[in-house]
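#dry-run=false #mode=assembly
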Amino acid sequence: MDHSTPSVVVTRDIARVHDLILGSLKPPRKVYWFFVGICFVGILYGACCWAYQILTGMGVAGINHPVNWGIYLVNFVFWVGIAHSGTLISAILYLLRARWRMSIARAAEAMTVFAIMVAGLFPFIHLGRVWIFYWIIPYPNQRDLWPNFQSPLIFDFLAISTYLTVSSMFWYTGMLPDLAAVRDQATGLKRKIYGILSLGWQGTHNQWRHYGTAYLLFAAFATPLVISVHSVVSWDFALSIVPGWHSTIFAPYFVAGAIHSGLAMVLTLLIPLRKILGFESLITSKTLESIAKSMILTGLIVGYSYGVEYFMAWYSGNRIEWDSFIWRAVGDYAPQFWVMVVCNVAGPVLFFWKRIRTNIIWLFAVSIFVNIGMWYERFVIIVGSMAHEYVPHAWGLYGPTWVELSIMAGSFCIFFFMFLLFCKFVPSVSICEVKEALHLEKGENL
Amino acid sequence: MRMKTGVLGIFSNEERLLKAIDELRQMQIAIKTVYSPFYSEEIQQSMGVKLSPVRFATLIGGITGLCLGVGFAVYTFAEWGFIASGKPTTPFVPLVVVGFEMTILFGFLATLFAMWILGRLFRRLAPYYEPSFSKDVFGVLVIPDRFKEEELVLLLKDHGAVEVKKVVF
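#status=ok
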C-alpha cells in the first residue's frame, strides 16, 4: 500500500473529478433497486408494527415497571449518537482545516441528517398516545400551563429540533454548488428538479463570498451544538436520581461515546460506498486510516469513562450506587456489559497496529463491532440502571418483545433506505470542495 | 426595462483570469461578475471585495434568539409561579440551556437567510450563464462604459480567454 498517497489523488484534473463524482449518479443497476426494495419492505413492516402498537396499546411492548424505558429509548440515544460524527467531521474538521474531511464530509452529514430523523421517531413511538405529541410544544393550553423549561425533556426537544434544523440546512447549503453542477449537466425534467433544488446557484464571486462566510459561521455554530445536543440527551438521565444515571460525568461521557459510534458508522457506510461508486481515489485508505486513528482516541475516552464511573461509584461510598455497578458487571445483564466493553474499548485498541488500521476488512469488522457495542452501551445504561434501583423487591428484568424488535429493524431500514437514495440522487462527495483542494494543492506545489 | 450590453470572457485557467481581472481593474473597467466552479480566495482578493456582511445578520440573529429563548422561559416560569422546596420560581441554570439552543438556532437561520438574500439566490439563471462554469471554466463579465465592446473583446483575448462573447442582460 502506498502510504505517501495524498488525501486526494486522482489526476489533479478538476474536470475529471467532476465527471467521476457526477458519474456516480448514473441510473443504478437492478441490484441497487433490490436493496432499496428490501429496505422499503422493512419500513412498511416496522410501520405496521407501530400501527399495531397504537391500536392495541403499549402492552405489546416489553416496557413495564420497573423498566419503563426500553429499547425505544435505547434506539433514540443510539441514533442521536450516530448523528454526531457527521456534523463533527464536517464542522470541527472544517474549522481545523483538516483536508481529509472533504471526501467524506458529505456522506457523513447525510448520515447525521438521516440518523437524527430516525432518532426523532422514537420518542413518538415510546409516547404511546402519539396523537397528543404536541403537548411537548410550547403553547398555552386551556389551563394556561406551559411546558416546564426546567425539565431535561424540554431541553431535549429544543436541542434535537435545533440540531435537526441546523444539520439538515448545513448539509443542504453545502450541496448547493454541487446541485447546480448536476443541473448544468442534466436535461429535461431532471434539469428542472435540480434547478429548483440548487436555488439558482450560478457560482458568481458574490455568491461564493457570502457562501464562504456563511459556511464558516455554520461550522462555528454546529461545533458547540454537537457538544450540547448529546450533553442534553445525557441530562435526561443524569438529572434523575436513578443509581447508574445520576452522574456528573455523563455529558462528556455521552459526547465521546456519540462521536465514537458516529465514526464507526461512517466507516461502516463509507467502505462499501467507495467500492460500489468507484471512489477509491477520492476516499483514500489514508482517509479511512485517519478515521481509525480518531477512533483510538474516542475509544480510549470511552474506556476511561467506564473506569471513572466505577471509581466514582466506589469512592462515593454510596452502597446503592456501588451495588448497581457491581450488578452491571456480574448480574443478569453482564453479557451485554462485557460485549459493550470488549467492542467499544478493546476493538479500537487494535487500530494501534498500522497493519490493522490500513486493512479494509479489519476496519469494516471493527466498525461493525463498535456499532454493536455502542448499542449495548445504551442498553446497559438505560435498562440496566432501571432494572436494579434502590428497593430489592422493585428490581425486575426487561426483554424486548417482537413488536419492539420489529420497529427497531424498521428504523434501520429507514436509515439505509434514505442513505441508498442519497448515494444515487445527489453527489455523495463534495465536488466543489475536492476541486478547491486540488486547486490549493496545485498552488502549494508551484 | 432598458437592456444593457456586456462582454463575457471565458477562461480555462484561473491564473490567466486573475491577470485579466488585475488588468481590467487597473484600467478601471467595470467588472459585473466573475464565475468560478469553486471558492477561490485569489478571485475574492483580486476583486477587492470586503468581508461579507452576513456576519452582522448572524450577530443580530444570535442576540435575538438569546433574548427570545430566555425571555420566553422567564415568562413561562412567572406564569407558572410554582414554588418547589422553597426554591426560586425563576431558576438561572435552565435558562442557560434554553438560551444557548435558541442563540444557535436563530443565529444559524439569520445567517442562512442573509446568505440567500445577499447571494441573490432564488433567481433565474442569467441568459449568458454557461453550464461549464460549474465544471471547470471561469468567466468574467465586463461592462463597456468608456470602452468599445471590440476593444474589450481584444483585451480579454489577449489575456488568454478561450472564448469571448457579447451579451445582453
